[in-house]
Amino acid sequence: MAPMIDAHVTASRHLDHCVLPTADLETARQRLTALGFTVAPEGRHPFGTRNACVYFTDGTFLEPLSVGSKERVEQAVNRGNPFVLRDQSYRFRRGEEGFSALVLSTRDASADHADFRRAGISAGRILRFSRGVRDLEGKMDKASFKLAFAADPRAPDAFFFTCERVRTPSVDRTALQHHANGATAICQVVMTEINPGDFSRFMEILTGNKPELSASAGMEIAAGDHMISVLDPERLLAEFALKAGHARGLQLRAIVFSVPDIVRTRNMLESNGVMFRVLKDRLVVEPHAGQGAAFAFEEARNS
Questions:
Q1: Where are the domains of the chain?
Q2: What CATH number was assigned to the domain covering residues 185-299?
């Protein structure tokens, strides 16, 4: 049953980060390094999960996520923590490697939570937590967050939340934002669904922007300077050489990165022995252990 959506739509939300479950954080670190990314030191959540993030100059980032303490995760599940509940559900249904969550930035997660509840798409209570953050020089500080969760019951294999950065750590991330592959930003996130338009109202409430629908382009939703695309299986295959299968519901499948020099990126991938396809002026790398989504690189249009 589709969520009940009222006419209220909140202010536009921007892309914040992508959550990539992995069985082993060190495997993810090695794979992402081979792809030319600079990977941050390990971060630990108070509820038992761990990450090793990849940060970009536009403020977006990747969050490879592993289970660090099964005991703490189970305790958090029993307390109804929405983040670990959804992560655990994804791993049960889809396996230890994948692309589970799309996260949008917000200045007010409490207001988002109220919006989601009013719209019938809330996926649990507000989550507040803090964790340590370390830069490449070893300097440590604390970051604090507040999260508001949304989900559509017709799409059990993807979850969404907004992230309010309550306390920004006083560490220098400049070195972490420089990547050998040249990537400066996530410019597009790609989902698939047989009939993208079935999720237009859900995506409108989630992002605060009205989706654009077309027979040829599927569905596109602006999220700040970034684009969220929902492609049908035929177009997903044509653009990213990915098979979607016949399952209904939104599935997160690919992340597109902006680079200033696609030739430089191609040379780096080749020198590291990373296999890729050239599709429509993009370099497309299929999912791999430690890399739960397809990664695509395209040259920035304003370069």
A1: 14-176, 185-299
A2: 3.10.180.10
